[in-house]
Specification:
heterodimer, A: Immunoglobulin-like, 4-stranded mixed β-sheet, 29 strands, B: 151 residues, 6-stranded mixed β-sheet
């Protein structure tokens, strides 16, 4: 195919002889006419087509997001989509399978980071991990690594790939990734649990420059990860919900001097046909003061409609997230996992969900998704004010012994080749200024150079200068002053 | 010879004001020294004042247009926004009633602040006065670009 840079008899289209003229991506082209081609049906050709179809299905969900982000800078005279097809076709197996870990996007220049603690926390519905940049270029210390990109792939029974593309660029504390979590009302959707995922790392400078240049210039290779639930036996393979949250209520009871937390189940709100054959097993993360603790499992024999947790005389002044499921007494699980947030303590105080997660360091607030009419901010004091803290601890800043009791006001030095001004009553001076305690009288004595005489004062504060005789003047330093002495030839 | 002293994290305060200087709320700080503030109205401008022992450390004008978002403020965030301005006289006067000026305590610009100021001066010479006059309180821009682009 040829490109016609200046058109051909204008913008040609159609066929002349065996040459076909057409437009492709706003480019005038000419190609050889191909008469009817017989549909190729050899085994190799069929296999090749099925590989291409599989690749297209794999890449399609990523087209407007990840493929566009990484491949746009590479798509010169082409498209990000075409670049993705070309780069990934080689990794599609003869059976038409492309593993996520072999996905090629962009043109990464640096080694893949190393991941640790790759977990799915079902209490929060959050995937998180820690990353070590490894041999990526050092980042200037005050500027942390902020830009990360994560492609999650859901556990799916269908043949189709299902991706989570919500985390295309994220700003998080250096060395951490948390996928977003919603409020306490999102109880039964474990939508942040991925079978696997890819993680790319971009340092701040790269990201900053990427606005104008190429995002690939400091991009790491992706690293593949698989998440592990923090709760043994957790899975989402059963979707039937036999005991929804609405079927369970809870209250604190004080008996004598001892508190108990009592759970009650309303069987009419469940689909259990014979409750006494079943057990409700639950685990909990409790939030108390600034601490959190995972406890359980607790086994609740559903032959009883209530279950009691003794709390002792102190009660429980905090909140908790409960994760529960229903098991047959033979041990087989028959219902999905559900989550329930207990937002009140025995002190009858309400403990808001995100505040509890934050106070107890259970999750980082930049992963919080607030209700729609709200926004907020978060950060780290150590990260923003590290240098201030260091200088303070060295005693250089705000050492009580050194705190000036009042502000200082300045008067500029007024010496020139035509004369000098002697200044007294200042506390200290440097090359350009004299410093005074507030409301001190500055004494000014102009001394002209040989052949000159003192004329007058200029500047916005000249009117406040008062002659005190003997060639001397005074100026009340009630503020920082701007003043110049004028000397003229005698 | 300076006497070493220990920082007391309980003396850090992060207060949120309206542009007119009315105090709205205070951000929470946990024992990992992270701060968090929710309940702000998307699209509305706020002034965030960071102080230690009532000495003003940093002022930021904050806008988040995205509902539901908690913006992560770090040095890179401020530099990315590349915005420095003078605090309004009204907000400055209100702030002056509750915090002490950093200049009086010789609180220096940190390295990331210097970088930000250099970047701003390189692109906008009109803001030189903001830094040359010790009576102005500088505020950095937070939110805006990074909030729109980065989750």
């Amino acid at each position: 195919m040829a490109r016609l840079s200046n058109g051909f008899l204008g913008n040609a289209s159609g066929k002349i002889g065996n040459v076909v003229f057409s437009r492709w991506r706003r480019i005038e082209t000419a190609r050889q006419y191909q008469p009817d081609i017989q549909d190729a049906q050899s085994p190799a050709q069929i296999r090749q087509r099925s590989r291409m179809v599989a690749l297209l299905q794999f890449l399609k969900p990523l087209n407007k997001t990840f493929i566009h982000l990484y491949n746009a800078p590479l798509a010169v005279g082409s498209t990000p989509w075409a670049v993705a097809i070309k780069a990934n076709m080689q990794n599609v197996s003869p059976e038409g399978f492309l593993p996520l870990e072999k996905l090629i996007l962009g043109d990464p220049r640096f080694p893949a980071p190393e991941l640790t603690d790759v977990i799915f926390n079902p209490f929060l519905n959050q995937t998180s991990f820690a990353f070590n940049p490894c041999n990526n270029p050092a980042v200037p210390t005050p500027f942390p690594l902020v830009a990360t990109s994560v492609l999650g792939k859901y556990i799916s029974d269908s043949a189709n790939h299902e991706f989570d593309t919500r985390h295309i660029l994220c700003s998080f504390p250096d060395g951490k990734f948390f996928c977003s979590i919603y409020g306490d009302q999102f109880n039964n959707v474990f939508d942040n649990w991925w079978a696997g995922g890819l993680f790319w790392l971009m340092n701040f400078n790269t990201y900053f420059n990427a606005r104008f240049n190429d995002i690939n210039s400091g991009l790491s290779n992706p690293v593949y990860f698989q998440t592990v639930p923090t709760l043994d036996g957790f899975s989402t393979d059963i979707t039937e919900n036999q005991v929804p949250n609405e079927a369970i209520t809870w209250q604190y009871i004080l008996t004598g001097s001892n508190w108990s937390l009592i759970f009650t189940i309303d069987f009419s709100k469940t689909t259990l046909t014979n409750p006494s054959d079943h057990t409700l097993i639950f685990w909990a993360v409790s939030f108390l003061d600034t601490l959190h603790e995972q406890t359980g499992p607790y086994e609740w024999d559903l032959a009883n409609a209530t279950f009691e947790i003794p709390l002792g005389s102190a009660g429980f002044k905090g909140s908790a997230i409960m994760l529960f499921s229903i098991f047959k007494k033979t041990g087989e699980r028959i219902s999905c996992f559900n989550r329930l947030y207990i937002d009140k303590g025995s002190d009858n105080v309400t403990y808001p969900y995100f505040e509890q997660l934050f106070n107890c360091n259970y999750s980082y607030p930049s992963s919080f998704i607030l209700p729609e009419n709200q926004s907020g901010f978060c950060g780290s004091i150590d990260e923003l004010f590290g240098e201030f803290i260091e200088l303070y601890e060295q005693g250089i800043i705000h050492n009580d012994a050194d705190i000036p009791s009042t502000a200082e006001y300045t008067l500029p030095s007024m010496n020139s080749t035509l004369g000098t001004v002697n200044v007294t009553n200042y506390t200290h001076a440097d090359a350009s200024s004299f410093y005074f305690a507030p409301n001190t009288l500055a004494i000014l004595t102009p001394t002209p150079a040989v052949g000159n005489v003192f004329s007058n004062w200029t500047g916005i504060d000249a009117a406040d200068v008062v002659s005190i005789g003997g060639g001397a003047y005074e100026l009340l330093m009630s503020k920082t002053r701007a003043l110049t002495a004028v000397f003229i030839p005698a | 010879m300076p006497t070493p002293q220990t920082i007391d994290y309980s003396k850090f305060k992060i207060e949120v004001f309206t542009p007119d200087g009315e105090l709205i709320k205070e951000a929470m700080i946990n024992n990992a020294h992270d701060f968090y503030c929710a309940g702000l109205t998307p699209g509305q401008e706020y002034i965030i004042a960071f102080s230690y022992d009532d000495i003003l450390l940093l002022c930021a004008s904050f806008v988040c247009n995205t509902s539901g978002k908690v913006i992560y403020l770090n040095p890179a965030h401020f530099i990315f926004n590349n915005g420095v301005d003078m605090l309004s006289a009204k907000a400055g006067a209100e702030l002056a009633k509750i915090v002490k000026r950093r200049e009086e305590y010789k609180v220096l610009f940190q390295q990331w602040e210097k970088q930000l100021i250099e970047n701003v001066l390189a692109t906008n010479s009109k803001v030189v006065n903001v830094f040359s006059n010790p009576h102005f309180t500088v505020q950095y821009k937070a939110g805006y670009e990074l909030a729109k682009i980065v989750k």
